[in-house]
Specification:
The protein is of the alpha/beta class. It has one domain: Vaccinia Virus protein VP39 (Rossmann fold, 3-Layer(aba) Sandwich), CATH 3.40.50.150. 27% of the residues lie in helices and 27% in strands. Strands 3-2-1-4-5-10-9 form a 7-stranded mixed β-sheet, sandwiched between helices. A 3-stranded antiparallel β-sheet has the order 6-7-8.
């Protein structure tokens, strides 16, 4: 585990109890309503694998229409919040690292990667995707959801490193501060990352979020 990954794990462990406050921002409600509707439609009656489920906010959305959900996260603290929710279908939780997933060996029709891509260093995107795709059948639908940077709503960028990764300095309600890797990729960067490993790549930008869907392809 890299220094960035360790810092990220500690941050979300300590933020577990207050994480969902970000979804209460008034200016984001229209986007969130659109996203909930899209996700519920795309996973309807499907077997879903969720990467970086966190506190289960999006697990709840997925489970409202999915056939079943396997939700994974590296932090037991955030999964503890998720397990306390009420779900509309069977949901199994697994504490496991997204870079070395240990999950039930079964067919997943849809994979949901929510707010994790932005926390992956540029050099590790390929490694993450290669591992994920090795567990999936060709043609599996992958949905990636993450943040668009919006001045005044997003946490300011504190620095950018030599490899182009950006960071934010975040403070919790107890006063603890963390520097968290948080990238905001362009459409061109996303399409480049998916070249030769995916097909039917589609991108959509809302005001505060971006969505990418694609089908797993392996030659």
């Amino acid at each position: 585990m890299t220094d960035e990954q360790r810092a990220l794990r500690a941050y979300y462990r300590d933020r577990a109890g207050e994480y969902d406050e970000v979804y209460a921002k008034p200016e984001r409600q229209s986007d969130l309503g659109t996203l909930r509707g899209l996700l519920a439609r795309w996973v309807r009656d499907k077997s879903v694998l969720e990467i970086a489920a966190g506190t289960g906010y999006w697990t709840e959305v997925l489970a409202s229409s999915a056939r079943n959900v396997v939700a994974t996260d590296v932090n037991n603290e955030t999964l503890g919040v998720a397990r306390a929710r009420t779900f509309g279908c069977p949901v199994e939780f697994f504490e496991t690292d997204a870079y070395s997933l240990v999950i039930p060996d079964r067919t997943y029709e849809v994979v949901f990667v929510g707010f994790f891509w932005s926390h992956v260093a540029h050099r590790d995107i390929g490694r993450f995707l290669d591992h994920l795709h090795s567990l999936l059948d060709c043609g599996t639908l992958v949905i990636v959801l993450d943040n668009t940077f919006v001045e005044g709503s997003s946490t300011p960028i504190s620095r950018t490193d030599a490899w182009g990764n950006s960071y934010q300095r975040r403070e919790l309600t107890d006063g603890k501060t963390y520097e968290v890797l948080k990238n905001f990729p362009s459409d061109e960067e996303l399409r480049t990352a998916m070249s030769d490993i995916a097909e039917d790549v589609k991108l959509r930008r809302l005001t505060y979020y971006w969505l990418m869907t694609y089908r797993v392809f392996r030659a």
